[in-house]
Amino acid sequence: MKASIYYEKGDIRYEEISVPEIGDGEILMEMEACGLCGTDIHKAQDGTVKGPVVLGHEAVGKIVKKGKNTDRFNIGDRIITAIHVPCFTCHYCNKGQYTLCGQFKNTNIEPGGFAEYIRIPEEHVKHLVHIVPDGVSVEEATLAEPVACCIHGLKAADIQTGDSVMVMGAGQIGSIHGQLAKLKGADKVIITDISEFKLRKAKELGVEYTVNVLNENLGERVNEITRGKGLDIIIIAAGNFSLLAEAVSLLGRGGKIIVFSPFDKDNMVEIDAGRFFRDEISIIGTYSVTPYDFPEAMDIIEKKKINIKDMITHTFPLEKLKEAIELAADPGNESLKIIITA
What we know:
Layout lengths: L1 E7 L2 E6 L10 E9 L2 H9 L11 E9 L11 E3 L10 H4 L22 E4 L1 H6 L2 E2 L6 H4 L2 H14 L6 E5 L3 H12 L4 E6 L2 H9 L4 E4 L5 H9 L4 E6 L6 H8 E9 L14 H5 L3 E4 L8 H9 L9 E6 L3 H9 L7 E5 L1
Parallel strand pairs: 8-9, 8-11, 9-10, 11-12, 12-13, 14-15
Antiparallel strand pairs: 1-2, 3-4, 3-6, 3-15, 4-5, 5-7
């Protein structure tokens, strides 16, 4: 079979590799589409993983082979899956903190989403594989995983009816967060970025307020929109650690900051620590997705509760993964969600 394999920064090769063998409880999926995630772009552009490795985890396809004890699925079923599975029995799992489980990052699909065929291990088959509903395209279905990730993050935010929410970053994840915040009952939703294209897309997707921080004063706009109250929830959906200090300054009393995007290990930022006591603010980090977030994500996509289809700006064939990553990584290009197809 063919796969696009990352070797090192700037070096992605479309090569022949062996089709994975499956065992009992496992499924072999023929990949039909796989979303290009921001983490894939970060790994490839910044060389944060050691190659050779097949990236990609937002995979959708059809079952072409299955092992014993997979009776709830049939050959030909169109399915989605994700990449990591918790153990459900450890200290963290017992507290509902599934993404902190020691097993979580040690579980993977094989070889990765950017390959023609993918082995789905038994743990994934049990907990992470879902049938794609009729009427949902394979391209739309690839967004189930990022939507589920955002649902996981918004659980920590606990948006209440009437809240004012700001999303910092209007990329693919920020655009999902902005739409979900409105769906969860937020009264006012603001999204910020430096890209006029992404801000225009956010407006088209239904986000009420957009702010280009290159030419608008964000503090003044927040005061205007919230009538001086400040923001109830701020979601950082861009990997710029300096946004944290700005978020603390813009948060209203009792507000929450959700750090959704990763920052580098040694990033240091100075914040007004007195606000924790004085104003009872919270800063919460969220990572990845749990198996329990997928049913809601699929329901949202199937019933078109948010606009997924118009987020997709480009599709590339599997052999053009390198070009797709280069397009997505260049902030001057007008791209939002890119899908890789087999």
